[in-house]
Structures
1.
Amino acid sequence: MEATGCIAIPPAGIRVIDLLEQAGFEAWCVGGFVRDAFRGAAVHDLDIATNAPWRESARVLRDGACSVHETGTAFGTITAVVDGNAIEVTTFRSDGTYRDARHPDSVTFVEAIEDDLARRDFTVNAMAYHPTRGLRDPFGGKRDLEAGLIRAVGEPEKRFREDALRILRGIRFASQLGFKIEDATLQAMHANAASLRAISAERVFTEIDRMLMGDHVLQALLACPDVIGQVLPEIAAMNGCPQNTPYHIYDVYEHTAHVVADSPATPVSRWAAFFHDVGKPVCRYTDSSGRDHFKGHASQGAEIARDALVRLKAPVHLRDDVFTLVRLHEWFVPATEQAVLRALNKLDGRVELYRALLALQIADSGAKAPGVTERLEAAQRMSIVLEQVLGQDLPFTVKQLAVNGGDLLAAGWVPGPHLGSTLDELLDAVMDGRVQNTREALLEYASRHCSI
Ligand code: ATP
Ligand code: MG
């Protein structure tokens, strides 16, 4: 074994490699598994590359009692399931030309693992590892892994022209791993960014989503605003958009990058942060003193964000929640139990959405000029009150009342739409502290204050 350290391959992977090799073929662990295992990161999906044609791999593995699914045979891939673990097994291949900057028109199966590694995107993803033969690393992936570098395999220009998605993948890996993008690779990313327009919305969404979720998203966003702007022109307009106000030290894009990085790493929070100020470029108005105003940017931005997410074919729930968060990101209520209960009520009782709104407001207020802390403190106070309110089990939706429509009917009320408005009135009274949330108190209150 080379003196490069060894990594633990899960038993299911060893079994697949052994079966293939006992049948006279060659097999290696490849791709993200090798990269992440060397980083000591959590277990990753295992991909195996082999010189066995896929039909042969399927036969050998089935004979070895693995179940086999023919998941991507046009590209030489089958999936073996061993002890509940799905392992992709792909025949060594080199990709042909790319017609649509994404799918190779053809794949050519090749003899040597080195040729298979050469088709891979980045050096850290182009290592092969074998339990006894050790590491095969013709492009210096291990060195780049240790140096924290994303470097294209081969000539970066050519590799991005073949498949533009690799540009976004590179930024996504930089965001996830905290790696710098090597100079020539970064230059080629900038130079070829326009070809990203040929990439399908679903793939763009997946990569941007994973990039936004990365621990190092701030650096990734700051490295490539132009690239992101190609797939999201709405975001491009924020880059360089000044904010001449006493509250800001960054332009809209840089401010946004900080807010994203300071937001919880959930899709709703990170996408909402990404879009929270997207309405600013269109709403910007500079007064005669040179000061900028952005009146209406929250509601305009919500529309822009929704349209962008529709275009990217984002999940409907994400689109809707981001719309709400962007629209409300400047909505501050007093830090009192009553106001917070009413805010929860306005959000249809969606506690997590309110938590996400407050987290966005905290991240947003924190990324402003030093000394501008009023809103930050207000949002922090609201968060404390929110948790207090939740701890006391106070009602903020009609469903949480100690009575329902049936109880009112049983107490002699006649059926009709006024039952709903009576329950609303009761909830109002409970939230204001005018009546206790108990069955007796509510029925008594209803009989005295609500009209039948
Ligand atoms: P993760 O699964 O964490 O996203 P990964 O490296 O496993 O990371 P996959 O998309 O699962 O990424 O791809 C597996 C491997 O296939 C990669 O490590 C890389 O070697 C290769 N690969 C994937 N997509 C491309 C591409 N567009 N161009 C070249 N090689 C690619
Ligand atoms: Mg993978």
Note: The chain has a mean pLDDT of 94.
2.
Amino acid sequence: MELLTIGEFARASRLSAKALRLYDELGLLRPAVVDPGNGYRRYAPEQLEQARLVAWLRRIGMPLADIRSVVALPGADAADAVRRYWRRVEADTEAKRRLAADLVEYLSGRDVAMTASLVVKYAVRTDRGLVRESNQDFAYAGERLLAVADGFGKQGDAASQAAVSALQQVNVGDLLNAMEDAAHLAGQAVRDLDGSGTTLTALLWSGSRLGLVHIGDSRAYLLRDGELFQITHDDTMVQSMVDEGRLTAAEAASHPDRSLLTKALTGNENPGVQVREGQAGDRYLLSSDGLHTVVDIDTVRKVIESEEPQQAVDRLVTLANAAGGPDNISCVVAHLIQR
Ligand code: MN
């Protein structure tokens, strides 16, 4: 077997010697032989294939730790791993695309005088449900803030309340700034509740603009032009499996582990934020999972579309309890109305 020097191998694989040394250090591609005297690396010609595979995986942006596991897999499993990685990239890119679109909208509207000022008409309701011993949800609706939080752990009720209270401290003037404050303050709010935490989904209003704060599996929906859109993305295990194409939305909805969160406020992580533009006629629903996992979405849409906020929240809680009320139920409904 004719071994190649690192220079020869670099030329043959079209990788730099520097990259090859890095791959060696990271355990992605070990030389066939390292001279114990001078430390020179030598490669076998058969290693070219693996070197090219590493280079291709680098080119599609796969993190080094993932490459390490992919190159060790048999072909079919490696193919699967690349497929899953790419779905993740696409989901991530889609999230960034939305952020960029929000930002474009935000910046384009910044210089326009706020002529069309909107009034928010809202109602809030939270209910223990029929099974849980206490209500660890916390919900709030006011002129500037709408919020739903679903606490968990020993001090879950304190956590959900603290997260929402933190948002009440936010001074909503300059919205981008306010959103950063909101994320930070909410993150801090639950720090000292030893492991207890909460989900948080909230809307902060500034004129016709609204900031969406979100972490966990509570949800925000928007009814516009007769259609109900979920405008938050669940931070759950099953949702990430849906994103990767490993589960359908229907399978996720009935999955036994559907309430397993990938992110929540526990003091280590801040919620994500988004800036959106409100329109007269928009209707918003914030809900904890005690509502949206037991009342089907089409029923929810009809209630939001046909009822005033107070009737809507009452009706939704009644429907969730009629479905067994297995969890605490919270909802906020808000209508955006031209002043
Ligand atoms: Mn819940």
Note: The first strand starts at residue 4 and ends at 5.
3.
Amino acid sequence: MSKIVRIAIVGPMLLVLLLMSVTGAAKFKVGLSMATLAEERWKVDRDLFKAEIEKLGGEVIVAAANGDENLQNSQAENLITQGVDVLVVIAQNGETASAIVNSAHKSKVPVIAYDRLIKNCDLDLYVSFDSVKVGELMAEYVCRLRPSGNYFIINGSPTDNNAHLVRQGFYNVLKKYPKIKVVFEQWCDSWSPEKALKHVENGLTQFKNDVQVILCANDGTCGGAVQALAEQKLAGKVLTTGQDAELAACKRIVAGTQAVTIYKPIKKLALAAAKATAELAAGKTPSEINEKVNNGRSDVPSIMLMPIQVDKNNMREVIVADGYHTEEEIYGK
Ligand code: BGC
């Protein structure tokens, strides 16, 4: 190679390195592959995670798949091609997303399953809330108040492992109440509130409005259920549940049309995931692992966090005090 050619190649490279040190370019690159941004919480997850990674010296490239598992898989491939050091995945489909993990590993990129477990693959880390506990907390709340009668169950997305865990939590509690009858149970693809609305309309017709409780797997589906109840002037009479402490749900709780929500402090999740991401990027083992969760292939090192039951009595002390929503947002004025 001639001297001139070498200068022509090395020169610009040095310039880039110089610019990177002057502008404080990122020390590591992270891909965040999100199933959806539909529910209010996911924007919070994204923003907190991104800000924390930047604080730790990294950068985040985000791709959101609009509830389309095929799109998510190709977006994830694209992130791997862009040379990310760690891939963080919120899976639309906990089974088929194993292809993402396998592909990332071929490029020596570790993968973190964020909030939703990815099954049957060698996952590097799982960071989430205990979703069985989420279901138990919802069911415990309403079963104590209505220990007998007809119950409907509106589950989340059948392709999301969390929906199955929440359901397991429901039944862990329901089995202690022999006078409760689950007369109607349905699943909502992509946790769709519209599907929940239709299901509850059908259930109410089928059971001639004779229902005491509707266990809904999250606040979004609860919104659909409450709309169906309102059409029959039953909102507030039939107890309903949810998770996420969405603003609309907090307002329903104050108004009395939703009994309880399960709050999962997103900040804790996003910060724990960001810290673990930085550790993996540096080739270290994440320091906050506190559990192992089996995903069908292996015991995945996990960071598990605890959810909190919220009703109208502890709304201020949990949701407002934590800065998740303000007093004004929830109560108006
Ligand atoms: C999350 C819930 C969320 C639902 C719908 C689940 O995996 O754990 O917080 O409401 O997905 O996005």
Note: Residues 24-123+266-304 form a domain with the Rossmann fold fold (CATH 3.40.50.2300).
